[in-house]
Amino acid sequence: MARFAHTVTVAALDRGWFEEAAGALVDLLDASREGPGGSVVLADGRTVEGLRLLKGRHLRPGARYGEVPSAPEGAGKAGTAAKAADGPAALASGTGDSSVTPSSVVLRAWRPSHSLEVESLVVEDGMSLKLGLRLSEPRRPRAVELSLSGHQPGGGSLYRFSGRGKADLAAWWAAVDRLPTAPPAARAPVAGRAVHRLAKARLTLTPHPAEDGSWRVTVALSVRGRWLLRPVGAVVLFFVRGPVQGGLREAVESAAREWNTALAELTPLHGEALRAEIADALTDPDGAAAL
């Protein structure tokens, strides 16, 4: 098994603000309704930009959401009118021009006080990808779980992979609330695994508070071959250790810069001002100021 790790310093996110913002977003969506043409309308009457109900009932299990595609160039008025008459549900089910099939997500559960679950299936470049997300206690998020599986139809086991990950937010906040002199958390609050026929990989994120109030986050990646390929994998990893370590370092540093930039642009609004800013971002993302 080969292990690679890199530690970066990032700006700290205020837990109270994060949970208040998450609660405001969930409450806004929970109070929304279906509007004309499958649009999603907030309680104040404004339409959520880029979100359409394609099939099912709004905020009910099985509801499918996405962006209704525009008609391809050169399409006649008759074809456009026919698609409009069929509605977004017909577009979601694949009727009409197959070249304009929209990407979409299916709502599996909407229980704001308990959990939120969505699932997405994407077919791109011959690969079929299925992504699932589950958020525990959405109004004050405690954990985020991800699942991913992919395969190429007819491609055999070499074209199949799967992965699972979990961010234990309660454990994360507990880890960054420690004294800077305390040892890091024994268990990584964020961990994920990926499995392929030839190899397995595990990625973890472990935070630790710094003296200046920022966070030091260690990202660790471990890779090992499977079955009879373990000895071969060990040899290959020996020769590519340098490039892999360099790639991990570059990716982590880039993510840290983006995180710091995003937090620097946040406006520390609270209460109704924060709720109004989130509503503006949902209905006019190009015109709304950064949160």
Mean pLDDT: 84
Strand order of the largest sheet: 1-13-12-11-10-9-8-7-6-5-4-3-2
Distance between the ends: 43 Å
Q: What characteristic shape results from the CA principal axes? A: globular
N-to-C SSE string, H for helix and E for strand:
EHEEEEHHEEEEEHEEEHH
Number of helices: 6
Query: Which class of secondary structure composition applies to the elements?
Result: alpha+beta
Number of strands: 13
* SS strand fraction: 25-35%
- Radius of gyration over C-alpha positions, nearest whole angstrom: 22 Å
The count of domains is: 1
Low-confidence regions: 73-102
Tell me roughly what share of residues is in helical segments. Answer: 25-40%
The biggest sheet, with number of strands, parallel, antiparallel or mixed sense and barrel status, is: 13 strands, antiparallel
For the structure shown, list the relevant keywords.
291 residues
Characterization of the model:
The protein is an alpha+beta fold. The protein has one domain (2-67, 103-283). The protein is 30% helix and 35% strand. The chain is built from six helices and 13 strands. The protein has helices at residues 15-30, 77-86, 88-92, 169-176, 230-264, 271-283, and strands at residues 2-10, 33-34, 39-41, 47-55, 64-66, 104-111, 115-124, 127-136, 143-151, 160-168, 190-196, 199-209, 215-225. Strands 1-13-12-11-10-9-8-7-6-5-4-3-2 form a 13-stranded antiparallel beta sheet. Strand 6 and strand 7 (115-124) form a beta hairpin. Helix 1 packs across helix 6. The longest helix is centred in the C-terminal third of the chain and has 35 residues, at 230-264.
